[in-house]
Write a structure and sequence with these properties.
143 residues, alpha+beta, 4-stranded antiparallel sheet, 1 helix, 36% helix
Length: 143
């Protein structure tokens, strides 16, 4: 068996197998990077959507609590849908009330209200909380 080698004329050029493989590897790496950027953007969008929903739930629970006068100390818990759980904590803040010139004490109390909304994001528990202070009539003590 006789093998002959043909020489390519010097004016003709082409791509070698190595050059083709290198270009395919560069293209594959570029595609992977672009796909990772897009998937990161999608994850960030979903996380933002969950935070926005948590903010809406927290604001709704805060408004509901502020409208329930008179405020009383305590903790309320609940769930919103299948994904979110919330905790409302109301504590009375001790303060020294000054008497006015007539010596009459106004029956009001100062309360700290904290609302926390949490949800599971993959394997990590995320949370959002808001807090405020409110003045409310003190509930009458029954003897």
């Amino acid at each position: 068996m006789v093998f002959s080698v043909r020489r390519i004329p010097s004016g003709c050029s082409g791509y070698t197998l190595i050059e083709t493989l290198v270009s395919i590897v560069i293209l594959a790496v570029s595609v992977v990077v672009v796909l990772q950027v897009f998937s990161g953007g999608l994850r960030a969008g979903k996380l933002s959507e969950n935070y926005i929903q948590a903010i809406q739930i927290a604001r709704e629970k805060m408004e509901t609590t502020l409208l329930a006068l008179p405020l009383t100390e305590g903790v309320l818990t609940g769930e919103e849908g299948e994904r979110y759980s919330w905790i409302i904590e109301v504590t009375q803040i001790e303060y020294q009330q000054k008497n006015d010139k007539s010596g009459v004490r106004i029956p009001i109390g100062l309360y700290a209200i904290q609302v926390e909304v949490s949800w599971l994001e993959g394997l990590v528990r995320k949370k959002f909380d808001i807090a405020t202070t409110a003045i409310s009539p003190v509930p009458e003590k029954r003897e």
